[in-house]
UniProtKB/TrEMBL annotation:
Transmembrane feature ranges: none
InterPro entries per UniProt: Cyt_oxidase_maturation_cbb3
Domain of life: Bacteria
Protein name: Cytochrome oxidase maturation protein, cbb3-type
Region (Disordered): 47-67
C-alpha cells in the first residue's frame, strides 16, 4: 500500500510531462510537413560532373588470379 502512495503520483507526473511535450511539439509545428521528408528521397540530385579527359579505369574486366 505504501508503494502506491509513491507510484501513483509518479505516474501522474509522467503523464503530465508527456502531455506537455506533445503540446510543445504541436506548437513548434513538428507535424506540419509529414510527407515532405518521405517524398524528398524520390527527387534526383544534380549529376556529378567529372573533369574532362579523365576516364574511369575498369578493373572488373580481368578475372582475379590471372596475371
Amino acid at each position: 500500500m505504501n508503494a502506491l502512495l509513491l507510484l501513483v503520483p509518479m505516474a501522474l507526473l509522467l503523464g503530465v510531462m508527456a502531455l506537455l511535450l506533445f503540446l510543445w511539439t504541436l506548437r513548434s509545428r513538428q507535424y506540419d510537413d509529414l510527407d515532405g521528408a518521405a517524398a524528398r528521397i524520390l527527387f534526383d540530385d544534380d549529376p556529378v560532373r567529372r573533369p574532362p579527359g579523365r576516364t574511369q579505369i575498369a578493373t572488373h574486366d580481368k578475372p582475379r588470379g590471372t596475371p
